[in-house]
């Protein structure tokens, strides 16, 4: 039976002197997941990636990639794009990919075809013989991503893969990541600061701060769990009596009045009807009622503040 | 074993591809050959041939040592500084293959540099003898080195170069600037005076088989220790922890 977890860690811990960079990280990422690993700089994301790639040894705990302990065999199953693109400036685009194709033991005829396909897909085919040293950040990023995909690995570890890309390329890369996971059961471990992107494409997110994993959850479930119903009501004009009447409702947890606009945090979504009824009863004209949902970014910032 | 050899050659081939794309470096090696092989020996014209041969030996070897030091810094330090080393370490290549691939590249280029210097010296001396047939006492056209010179350069020489490359690799993986790496790389050749002095104590120094053979044996021992230490310290973790942010 196929091992269910693309990445599995238990109590993974790494210290640098007195500082604990990663504290008992336990992750279970199923195959076919796009996992967004989120956290501020210095939270432990890079240390986690390095431990998953076997570039660092853990002080405690263990990690498995597709069921294999971390080592040369597990590294065969991983395509990486790290924070520095790792391209050789003095090699052409073709030679950069050919080198990594040889490392992954791709047979020569297949390797050439695969490189051509990836360069064409990345819109870099016409520039395949150029040295990449003079290339723009976006072009380099596309080539580095092509390199990660070269051996068609079941797991991709990508650190800010859309950084430096123009909007058109960004969409191509985003769609590619989604289709790799959805259509080909590839697992993508995505380190990113782009929370909107994570919210859009990730099927799971993990939030890490100061080396500790705060949560691992589906973004949608996280939003539902973390969001309290919020309502924004635009009126024709608010009287003090109307505000006081609404404030007295037991379902109203927070209330902010700004001119003719009322922002409320409610204990339950259905309470918005009672709020509107109360306002109307106080002679207030209600023009619009909007139910606001919290974004992943809001939740992230709140969690980071709480922990901080 | 077969896999390690294959992986090593992949790394070596990449180093060559990179090097060939840098004409400045290639020109530098040609310049070494001209200076160390062509110009310095000509300053010995007027002496007897044996003195000239012994006198030119250090220059020929020096061409290899300078090249070895330079290429090693390029192969290790620059890869670390440019951020390509971490991605390379994230591949299934073994530590040994990455290390050996780079060492073999540096060794090959250094030997090529020495070989070019020797060839340049032979051309220069023969050309000089054609112009001034009595310019070098005891020598005539066609002039060639005694076999012992070739043995010393291409059997003992590589053993010296392996030490220089091993030490240069370790220095390149730990220093913060390329200038320091280059300086320490050159300074790391100084400890070679120890085996050289020990050999000189037991064998008659000079260009004789006893001295060269003893030096060769000493260098085998030095290399065994140097490579063992270098390989022991060349692990993914030590390399990654020394990568500048």
Fill in the keyword field for this structure.
heterodimer; A: 308 residues; alpha/beta; Rossmann fold; Alpha-Beta Plaits; 2 domains; six-stranded mixed beta sheet; four-stranded antiparallel beta sheet; 37% helix; 29% strand; elongated; B: 245 residues; mainly alpha; 10 helices; globular
Structure characterization notes:
The complex is a heterodimer of chains A (about 300) and B (about 240). With about 300 residues, chain A is of the alpha/beta class. Chain A contains 11 helices and 14 strands. Chain A has 2 domains: about 5-225, Rossmann fold, CATH 3.40.50; about 230-290, Alpha-Beta Plaits, CATH 3.30.70. In chain A, helix 3 (about 95-105) packs across helix 4. Chain A is elongated and about 80 Å long. The relative contact order of chain A is 0.13. In chain B, helix 5 (about 95-130) crosses helix 6, helix 6 (about 145-170) crosses helix 7 and helix 8 (about 195-200) packs antiparallel against helix 9. Chain B is globular. Chain B starts with a helix and ends with a helix. The model of chain B has no long low-confidence stretch (mean pLDDT about 85). Chain B has about 240 residues and is mainly α.
Helix-strand layout with pairing:
The complex is a heterodimer of chains A (308) and B (245).
Chain A: E1 5-16, E2 19-30, E3 34-38, H1 45-52, E4 60-65, E5 68-69, H2 72-75, E6 78-81, H3 93-103, H4 108-121, H5 137-149, E7 155-159, H6 167-184, E8 187-191, H7 195-201, E9 204-209, E10 212-217, H8 219-226, E11 230-235, H9 240-247, E12 252-258, E13 261-266, H10 271-281, E14 286-292, H11 296-307
Parallel strand pairs in A: 3-8, 3-9, 6-7, 7-8
Antiparallel strand pairs in A: 1-2, 1-4, 4-5, 9-10, 11-13, 11-14, 12-13
Chain B: H1 2-20, H2 23-42, H3 49-81, H4 84-89, H5 95-131, H6 147-172, H7 178-187, H8 193-202, H9 209-233, H10 236-241
Helix pairs in contact in B: 1-5, 2-3, 2-5, 3-5, 3-6, 3-7, 5-6, 6-7, 6-9, 8-9
């Amino acid at each position: 039976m196929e091992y269910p977890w693309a990445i599995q860690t238990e109590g993974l811990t790494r210290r640098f002197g007195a500082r604990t960079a990663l504290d008992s990280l336990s992750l279970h990422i199923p195959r076919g997941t796009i996992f967004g690993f989120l956290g501020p700089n210095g939270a432990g994301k890079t240390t986690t990636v390095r431990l998953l790639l076997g570039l660092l040894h853990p002080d405690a705990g263990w990690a498995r990639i597709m069921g294999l302990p971390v080592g040369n065999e597990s590294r065969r199953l991983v395509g990486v794009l790290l924070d520095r693109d790792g391209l050789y400036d003095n090699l052409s685009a073709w030679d950069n990919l050919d080198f990594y194709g040889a490392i992954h033991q791709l047979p020569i005829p297949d390797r050439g075809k695969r490189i051509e396909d990836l360069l064409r897909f990345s819109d870099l085919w016409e520039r395949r013989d150029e040295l990449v040293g003079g290339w723009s950040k976006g072009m380099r990023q596309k080539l580095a991503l092509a390199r990660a995909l070269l051996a068609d690995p079941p797991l991709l570890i990508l650190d800010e893969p859309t950084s430096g890309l123009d909007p058109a390329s960004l969409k191509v890369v985003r769609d590619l990541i989604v289709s790799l996971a959805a259509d080909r059961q590839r697992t993508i471990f995505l380190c990113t600061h782009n929370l909107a992107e994570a919210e859009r494409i990730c099927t799971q997110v993990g939030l890490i701060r100061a080396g500790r994993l705060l949560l691992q959850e589906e973004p949608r479930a996280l939003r539902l769990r973390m969001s309290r119903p919020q309502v924004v009501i635009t009126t024709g004009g608010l009287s003090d009596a109307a505000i006081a009447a609404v404030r007295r409702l037991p379902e109203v947890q927070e209330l902010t009045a700004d001119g003719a606009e009322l922002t409320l945090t409610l204990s339950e979504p259905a309470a918005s009807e009672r709020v509107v009824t109360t306002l109307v009863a106080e002679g207030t004209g209600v023009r619009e009622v909007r139910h606001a949902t919290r974004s992943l970014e809001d939740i992230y910032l709140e969690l980071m503040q709480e922990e901080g | 074993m077969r896999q390690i050899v294959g992986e090593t050659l992949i790394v070596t081939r990449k180093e060559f591809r990179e090097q060939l794309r840098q004409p400045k470096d290639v020109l530098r090696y040609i310049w070494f050959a001209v200076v160390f092989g062509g110009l310095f020996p000509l300053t010995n014209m007027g002496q007897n041939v044996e003195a000239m041969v012994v006198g030119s030996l250090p220059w020929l070897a020096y061409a290899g040592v300078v090249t070895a030091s330079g290429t090693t810094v390029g192969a290790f330090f620059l890869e670390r500084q440019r951020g390509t080393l971490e991605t390379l370490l994230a591949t299934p290549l073994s530590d040994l293959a990455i290390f050996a691939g780079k060492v073999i590249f540096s060794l090959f280029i250094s030997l090529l540099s020495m070989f070019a210097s020797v060839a340049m010296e032979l051309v220069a001396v023969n050309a000089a003898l054609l112009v001034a047939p009595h310019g070098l006492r005891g020598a005539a056209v066609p002039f060639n080195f005694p076999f012992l010179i070739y043995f010393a350069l291409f059997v003992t020489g590589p053993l010296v170069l392996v030490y220089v490359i091993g030490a240069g690799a370790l220095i390149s993986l730990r220093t913060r600037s390329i200038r320091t790496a280059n300086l320490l790389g050159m300074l790391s050749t100084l400890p070679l005076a120890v085996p050289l002095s020990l050999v000189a104590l037991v064998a008659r120094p000079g260009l004789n088989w006893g001295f060269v053979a003893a030096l060769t044996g000493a260098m085998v021992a030095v290399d065994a220790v140097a490579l063992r230490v270098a390989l022991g310290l060349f692990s993914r973790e030590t390399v990654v922890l020394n990568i500048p942010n």
